[in-house]
């Protein structure tokens, strides 16, 4: 099967594609799955959040039922005891590529984004192009890759490799994804010659339904933004001013404007998503008490390990995040009643964020409460279109040749 899409450069350009449907939402909703123990919060306050697949499968199905647009997971490489502390924070973790892909079998609509350190170890673009084409086929065009370059020297060392310099990593990533794109779009054998890859009579089937799978990148640096606006459909951004909401909302408009202008210069439009951790209760007082209890149970040993590792990173995106903000986790903190959470999400939209990838402290009950108490208010505020009103969710009809 082949398909002709005149003028389309991205799955988002193609009516009927899952990404095109997601882009019709005024504010995209994503869920950052806790496929590592401790999730995003370095706290010993009792909760049910679990890294195991069955738990994350339930979260994904709940998110899909609520109308969320996408889910994805973190990719990491940590040694014994993880970041340490009583939690052995993130010692246990599922591989994001395998775990997220496996969700295709139990979902129908939601986008599934797999995070891959494409520059580590023995990854070959022909392997990933074939795996991606297969997952595109299995998922009905719902699979995508969050291609990350690796900013922690100890992870590179696990693979017996010296760490590549920051900006050079994005040059290498562009080369890698260029090979993927050529293979996904081609209906013939390809001879491909790049600085690091030589492919002879390379061919990948089945052809992806909408030119190629969804491409995603998380970045905050100038080199990363230049890469992302040229190659990605979604950019996971971070607050340039730390996790405190007021600080973030002051800094984000200039940041998102820079990204939009960079995309405009290369004749592309990308969408930005930011990662808030939401602490929501019926009243602001109850939400603050919940937040304070989480912070009061900080695992100081794990916090030392986590902050210490990031202190050795050359990533630009998290430089302004304070130690105490890492306890709750996430890129910024949304705390308050359902009405206050909606106001904060409206503010993020006005600041140029096209969507949010949410995390919670106690994922299952907190996600359920978000669905019951916040989501209807998002619809009222015009930030979400109910599934029943989404006329753009039309089945895609293949053409054959």
TrEMBL record:
Source organism: Caballeronia pedi
Domain of life: Bacteria
The keyword Translocase is assigned to this record: no
Coiled coil: none
GO molecular function: monooxygenase activity; oxidoreductase activity, acting on paired donors, with incorporation or reduction of molecular oxygen
Descriptive protein name: Luciferase-like monooxygenase
Keywords: Flavoprotein, FMN, Monooxygenase, Oxidoreductase
Domain Luciferase-like: 29-354
The keyword Repeat is assigned to this record: no
Pfam family, one: Bac_luciferase
